[in-house]
Amino acid sequence: MQKAPVQKTPVQKATPPRKAVVAPEKATAAVRGTPPAKTVAPEPPGNESRTALVRRARRINRELAEVYPYAHPELDFENPFQLLVATVLSAQTTDLRVNQTTPALFARYPTPEDLAAADPEEVEEILRPTGFFRAKTKSVMGLSRMLVEEFGGEVPDRLEDLVRLPGVGRKTAFVVLGNAFGRPGITVDTHFQRLVRRWKWTEETDPDKIEAAVGALFPKSEWTMLSHRVIFHGRRICHARKPACGACPIAPLCPAYGEGETDPEKAKKLLKYEKGGFPGQRLKPPQSYLDAGGRPAPPLGAG
Fold it and tell me: Coiled coil where (predicted)?
């Protein structure tokens, strides 16, 4: 009599032994002559080795590159001065609100010389929709005066010069360096901080330490686009309060999977911007974004 076939229980493959971990080189600054943030990425939490963390982080970056091949800075700008001012204005508000506000600002004050000599009350009135408009007026007029007095009306292309400008920190400086001058930098905004911690790339909370920790996982050449992809993902899918885990393309690589909605149909309803069929944040987005189905944002007061 033949024996009944025995059903085999699937067994997970054993994790191969890890190779000896070699300490990575310290993250260096994106701009020549600039000292790097001193903290280097610590050993990853849990049982994940340093080598495994680097591999997983880089795989996430590759996956995001496929999902967002059109990732870009979501502030409208036509020159370094416009990008610098728009980035300063983006504090405590959305890029969409800044993009809806800056056309009137730059139409009236197109150059640092114009903005430096402006009537503060008139600038405040234009910037009112962005919030904290008095402090922002002081910053953008102050940086404009400094550009005129110390840099010949031109935006400097060095980190150490940019961070001396009123209202400009490392985050703003790296946005300008990476997108106006093509110099690699990591933009550690609120979305970036949230996601890299969810992904266990680092447990740091200080932006400068996060910058150093994440920079140590990737080659410099990836820093600027990595920032765009992570921020795109944070705005569209991996939201702060309720991430759309069930619609996330990198769910298998995410240690935080399950913190949000895991049902695929319910998760789809949480998607924002082009993933949810809604306009993006730029009034004048890149053509690649439009070709991929993205839609421009509405002007201020429309819809």
Answer: none
Distance between CA 280 and CA 70 in Å, rounded?
A: 12
* Number of domain units in the chain: 2
171 in catalytic set: yes
Query: Based on the domain organization, do 56 and 189 belong to the same domain?
Result: yes
Mean pLDDT of the chain: 88
Residues 170 and 243 both lie in one domain: no
CA distance 278 to 236: 10
Q: Is 140 known as a binding-site position?
A: no
The residue from 76, 95, 171, 209 that is catalytic is 171
200 is in an annotated binding site: no
> Do 130 and 208 reside in the same domain of the chain?
no
Is 248 annotated in a binding site? The answer is yes
Stretch 144-173: mean pLDDT, rounded? 97
Roughly what angle, to the nearest 10 degrees, separates helices 50-67 and 223-236? Answer: 70
Residues in the chain: 303
Active-site annotation holds for 19: no
Catalytic position from the list 95, 136, 189, 275: 189
Q: Which residue has the tokens 């001065």?
A: 81
**Is the overall model pTM greater than 0.70, yes or no?**
yes
pLDDT band at 36 (very low <50, low <70, confident <90, very high): very low
CA distances from 269 to 63, 240, 246, 266 (A): 22, 15, 10, 5
Q: How far apart are CA 174 and CA 223, in angstroms?
A: 10
Residue 284 marked as a ligand binder: no
